[in-house]
Amino acid sequence: MKKNSNVLFLMDLAKANQEVTAEKRNANGSSIADFDGVVQGRWIKIAEDNSGVVEYNGVEYNTIMQGRKSIPKGTKVSLEFRQGHYISSW
After folding, report:
1. Averaged over 30-56, what is the pLDDT?
2. Model-level pTM?
3. Pairing of strands 59-65, 76-82
4. How many CB atoms lie within 10 A of CB 44?
5. Beta strands in the chain (DSSP E)
6. What is the sign of the dihedral through the CA atoms of 65, 68, 70 and 75?
7. 18: phi > 0 → left, psi -120 to 50 → alpha, else beta; which?
8. Distance between CA 44 and CA 71 in Å, rounded?
């Protein structure tokens, strides 16, 4: 009996581990972004290091700019997290 209960316990443990791994993979568990996908932020300025500064949900993000023209402060821009960097585009 004891051997049977140990086997069942190990099978349940393996199943739980598989579910946790699948959830991490599906949720992109390695992402450190504050949001998922592409969101609309508000353009603030170009920083001294030539990164773009975008505000979203009260937080300012330094971004790599992918815009082709000058825009005024307060303009809505797209903000996303891609390959370890925040990207702003308009």
Report:
1. 91
2. 0.65
3. unpaired
4. 18
5. 38-46, 52-56, 59-65, 76-82, 85-89
6. negative
7. alpha
8. 10
CA–CA gap between residue 28 and residue 49 (Å, rounded): 30
Residue 34 has pLDDT above 90, yes or no: no
Please state the rounded mean pLDDT for residues 54-73.
95
For residue 71, report the phi and psi dihedrals to the nearest 5 degrees. -130, 150
CA–CA gap between residue 60 and residue 1 (Å, rounded): 60
Counting other chains too, the contacts that 61-65 makes at CB distance below 8 Å and 24 or more residues apart are 61/86, 61/88, 62/86, 63/87, 63/88, 64/88, 65/89
Residue with tokens 């450190």: 32
Question: Please, what is the Cα angle at 14 between 12 and 20, to 5 degrees?
Answer: 105
The CA angle 67-71-73, to the nearest 5 degrees, is: 125
